Structure formats: C-alpha cells, structure tokens
Amino acid sequence: MSINDGPSPEMRLFARPELDQPLSAADAERLLAGQGAAPDAPKDQKALAMMLRHAAGPAQKEELAGQVSAIAAFALVKEQKTRRAEGPVRAADRRRLAGAAGGRRWWTQTRRRPLVAACASAAVLLALSGTAAADALPAPVQRLAHETFGAPAPRHPVPSVTTTPGAGRGTHPPATPDATPEKPTNSGSPHGNGKAVGKTAGKAAGKAVGKANSAKPTPHGVAKGHTAAPGHH
Amino acid sequence: MRLAASGDEAAFARLWRDNQPPLLRYLRVVAGDHPDDVASEVWLEVARGLEWFRGGEGEFRAWLFTLARRRVIDMIRYHARRPVVLTGDPGILDRRAGDDTAATALENMSTDAALELISTLPREQAEIIVLRVIACLDVGQVAELVGKKPGAVRVAAHRGLRTLAARLSATTDEAVTR
What is the pLDDT of residues A88-143, one digit of tens each? Predict the structure, then answer.
C-alpha cells in the first residue's frame, strides 16, 4: 500500500462523513418513511435508500423457522389461563380443607410453642425473684437465692450458718441449737431484714450468754451477735 | 387483532409472521447475540398479555417493540456487556456476487449485511433507524418507546443516516476503483 492509495478502508469507515450533498431533514424523513430517494437525489442518497430497503426486505425463511413453537407456546398460555380462571375457587377450597384438617392449627401451634415456653419461664423466674425479694422462700432456697443474685438472706438460720467456723471467732460464743428456733419479731428494728436476722442471731447468742452469765442481752450483744453470724450483713 | 386477542391460533400465527422478521432484525442490531431467545420471551409475554391489548396493528407493533426493548435492557443489565460491538468490518459490502460495480454491490447486498452496517452506528442511532425503517413506527411512537422527545429522535435518525450514507459512499467508491 503506497501513500497514493489514500486512507485504508478502516479509516474511511470511521472517518468524518463527507457527502456529495448534505442530507436535508426532508430527505431523511423520506428515507426513514420508506419512500426511497427522490429521482434527482445524489447517488449516496440513492445508495442509502437501497441499503435501507434491503434492511427492511421481505421475511427470510430462517426468520420464520420458529412459527410452530411460537403457536404451541401461545396455545399453552391460553390453556394455563383457562385453568387459572378456575384457580381462585380451588385455592379457597384448598385453604378451607387445610384448615379443617388442622394443617393451619398445627402450623400455628408449632410457631406458638417456643413463645409459650419462654413466657412460662419468664413468669416462673419473676415469681421466684419476687418471693426471694420478699424473703418468703424456704431457708435453703432463700440462701441459694441470696448467694446467687443477692436476695435477702434467710431469716431462719440454716444449719450451715451455725456451724461455720467464723461463728466461733466472734466475741460471743456461737449460737447454740436451742437459740435458733426463736422467731424474729422485726418490731422496732431500724436495720431491715438482714439486720433483723443478725438481731435474731445476736439475741440467741445473747440469751446463750445470758444463760451463762445470768444477765440480760444488751444492744451491744445484738451488734456483736450480728458480727458473729457469718454471711449476715 | 381481535381474533388473536380472543385466543384464535390462526390469527396469532398471522400476527407472528408479520412481526417476527422485523422483531428479529431489531434484536440483532440492539441485542447482538441470541436474538431468537429474546424474541421467544417477547412472544411469550405477548401471548400472556394479548387478551388485554386494545388497538390496531400500529399500536400492537409499538407494544411489541416496547416489550422487546425492555427485555434487551434487562439482558444488558444482567450481562453487563455492550449489546452492539463496533466491528468496523470494511468487508461488509464485499458479500456479493462476482461483479465489482457499486450498483451490483448494493443490489446484491443482503439483509444481513445491511443490518450489520446499521449496527456499526452508535446504539441509539442504530436503534432509532431500525425502529423507523424496519419496525415502521412513526416519530411519536419511537420517541415514546425510547423515552426521548420527537425532536431528539429526528436529530439522532438524521445523524445516523448521514453517517451511513458516507460510509456507503466510501465503500462503494472503493469497490468501483478496485
């Protein structure tokens, strides 16, 4: 290829269009409407008209090859539509039947079961906590609640309380079994439940001391009794 | 139209024969590969919605190409690829019989070659020209279909035609001088 050959075909294809005569809007509309080029139109317009005529030419054999399957699809869609026209009634019946057979109830129960279990657990926990807070549980359980989540200590000393080694280290001798059955009155105690328990233990200790010393327990005895009871704050 | 809409298979077959070739050609230009698959999906959609269609042949054609265009847009989004590849193949017009004259070259130009040449245009121009020339839709219908103003459609079509004319001129000149 020499320099005189001009631009390559690729360059010509993508070069800026240069026409013999500019294509007017009317000419363009004429071509687009499929009316062809005017008789006196330049040759590039005639070529363009011919090319467009080819593009819009008659149907080719391979373009119509899928006719059978297209009509089959149309028939299938029509059949589906006919079936679907009866569909809503059947669907309603199906739902009703499922309800009658307990299908829906089973599904609802399946979903409700965990919820009911969770609610029941929460209720039991709440009741236990409330009872523990009110110090109304049996002594061992109350003690467990006290150690677990800080509920008030049991008012009735449990055997472990009286036999703990810390009790012997107090100023006063440890409470003896005959002092434990005394029921606390709580009257006039400004110290609350924990203190009342301490007071009871202190009283018991004081009584024990009183028995030994033939003297009445003093408020100091209560305080000392309180310190003597381990785990009672 | 009314018969086809009421489910008449023969009427649907006539409708299909009239519109399938332009639909396939449109899809070849704007969708590139697998125009038959897209056309089948479009006709299935037509079959489903035909009973609610109201209008004549022109309106039906506009509806058909609207469905086709939506399918093509979905496909392009799905595959994230360009539907039209600018091949720049200068040999498009060489697919002809032995004679080398420009007139014969154009006379013997196949529909395929013409569509390929249109496909070398920017996508928007190519689509508008196909919708105007092959689908035989008017400016208003095309504007509605592509979501542009009629003026913008006219301008795009005009530009496309000028480009095509220039390319044809260059190629046929080459064929004559060869």
Answer: 555 555 555 444 434 444 444 556 777 888 888 888 888 877 777 777 777 777 78
Cβ–Cβ of A66/B20 closer than 8 Å? yes
Question: Which CATH fold topology does B2-79 show?
Answer: Rna Polymerase Sigma Factor; Chain: A (1.10.1740)
Yes or no, beta carbons of B20 and A63 under 8 Å apart: yes
Flag if A59 and B167 touch (Cβ within 8 Å): no
Distance (Å, rounded) from C-alpha B116 to C-alpha B145?
23
| Counted domains in chain A | 1
CB contact under 8 A, B114 and A73: no
- The per-residue pLDDT of chain A, averaged, comes to 65
Candidates B130, B134, B168; nearest CB to A44: B168
Lowest mean pLDDT among A36-50, A131-145, A152-166, A217-231: A217-231
Q: Where exactly are the structural domains of chain B?
A: 2-79, 92-177
The percentage of residues in chain A with a pLDDT greater than 70, rounded to a whole number, is 46
Residue pair B134/B60 in contact by the 8 Å Cβ criterion? no
Supply the CATH classification number for the domain B92-177: 1.10.10.10
Q: pTM to 2 decimals?
A: 0.56
Count A/B contacts: CB-CB distance under 8 Å: 152
A187 lies in some domain: yes
Q: Best interface-test mutation with B: which of A45, A51, A60 has the largest number of B CBs within 10 A?
A: A51
**Residue A54 located in a structural domain:** no
Inside any domain, residue A162: yes
Q: Does any domain span residue A182?
A: yes
To the nearest whole Å, the CA of B19 is away from the closest chain A CA by: 9
Mean pLDDT throughout B1-13? 89
How far from B79 is each of B70, B115, B155, CA to CA, in Å?
Answer: 14, 23, 30
pLDDT in tens, A56-74: 999 998 999 989 999 999 9
Rounded (10°) angle between helices B111-119 and B150-177: 120
Q: Could you tell me if the ipTM is greater than 0.85?
A: no
Can you tell me the distance from the alpha carbon of A11 to that of A9, in angstroms, rounded to the nearest whole number? 5
DSSP state of A183: P
Residues of A in contact with B51 (CB under 8 A): 81
First to last CA, chain B: 52
Q: Which residues from B are below 8 Å from A25, CB to CB?
A: 154, 158
Tell me if chain A has a CB within 8 Å of the CB of B126: no
Q: Provide the domain limits for residue A189.
A: 154-228
Contact yes or no for A55 and B106 at CB 8 A = no
Tokens 């924990």 locate to: A194
